[in-house]
Design a protein that fits this description.
This protein is mostly helical. The protein is 72% helix and 11% strand. The protein contains two helices and two strands, in the order ααββ. The protein has a two-stranded antiparallel ribbon.
Length: 106
């Protein structure tokens, strides 16, 4: 009888100990989950700040897009001009009585 009583007391104590240990572990896991959530919230805030800087709140997205397209078109025209060779005019230099004259060749 004593053995059963001692055994039941030990079992009750061990379950109480398990409950006491599981509570801090559970709260610690919840805290870690909260930290991850805070980290993702910080990332979202950084993305939102980037969007605010990139697209001013007062500017319409359409206006920003048009300005960007104009800039790209301008850069494309500059590239095309840089790639096209410069055409040399058909001219010939002629020495006439000690003077150099330009004569157009057709």
């Amino acid at each position: 009888m004593k053995k059963i009583l001692i055994l039941s007391i030990l079992l009750m104590g061990s379950t109480a100990l398990a409950i006491d240990v599981s509570m801090p572990v559970g709260t610690m896991l919840n805290d870690l989950g909260g930290m991850q959530n805070t980290n993702s919230q910080l990332k979202l805030m950084e993305q939102q700040n980037f969007r605010r800087q990139e697209y001013n709140e007062f500017d319409d997205m359409k206006q920003v897009k048009e300005e960007r397209n104009k800039k790209l078109e301008y850069e494309k025209k500059l590239e095309e001009r840089a790639q096209t060779p410069v055409q040399q005019p058909n001219v010939d230099f002629v020495n006439d009585n000690g003077q150099i004259k330009i004569q157009k060749v057709e």
